[in-house]
Design brief:
345 residues, alpha/beta, 3 domains, 8-stranded mixed beta sheet, two-stranded antiparallel sheet, 10 strands, globular
Length: 345
Amino acid sequence: MENSCIEFFETEISGLKKPWFDLGFFGVRSICSETSRPRTRTFYRNIFMTTAIDALILAGDKEGYVSVHHRNKAFLSLKGKCLLEHVIKAVDRTQHVRNIFVVGPLDTLTSSINLSDYQKPVEFLPQSTSVIDNILTSYETIYSWDADYPLLILPSDIPLTTPSEIDAFITGADYFKYDYVMGFQTEKALRAFYPTETHDGIRMSYFYFKQFIGRHNNLHIVWPNRVKNVKLVNTTYNLRYQKKFQNYLKWVASIVPSTKGKGKILRLTLLMQLALIGDYMGVDRISKSLRPLMDIREIEACISNALRIRFRVYCMDFGASAVDIDSEKDLEIISERFDSWKNDR
């Protein structure tokens, strides 16, 4: 039984350009040999999928990027370290990430980040022309385009993220059953960052679903070579600030005509947009009244059809990865409250 299991794992990783993991490090032999029950190929595949995953941190500054202080956010200073260093540190301390890759401007990465500070292997990759291209070219560099492996993808401007939060996302995402899992956090989890009587804070805008009120938490697990409709992903990313209604209209004009299920997509996205505007304007009673009409399962199905993949939202009721830095004010507030917020995590 042990030998056949080891052979299976060696077959599964044969497409990699570099070693992905060490069988002894992850204890695969003990997993295979200590059970007497017959195991299927799916069982071992699931062990493989949930044992470790590589992480790609996005630190580029090309198409679609929004700067802060006219600089790449990844290298803004916070408590003596740049934002990117805080994120690498959190990923480095996780249990379920094997290798860390950072894509961005190579000269700045090599001059700003000391790789000896980290326990896990960290490798810098050159950026391309856009975020989506950065992901695709990085995947091809790490593995090969013929390989089929998942990547944990996260940005470099979430300095409050924690190892436990990242591990919880990886273990709970059930990503071996899906091609793309997007993380969300509940509004309740993010109340800890709201303004108080004595301190400034950050109150995010939320999406209102039948199942929960929440916000995307910047954590993604993707099987990049399975995503077929890359153009839609790139357009959606570039028009991601949906509080700007003109962005929503541009997205509808560019995407909906070429997508199946136009009526359902228009209905759901318009309801989401109205709820988002209501939340942003402080009229959350309107947003809450629309919740029964927005089922997250129905939205997942629409996105799956549009991208021609199996898409899932995984919502967590704790964490801080949703708190990103999109403005000078965000950076100022997080700098002021960083120690107390970090200690509370």
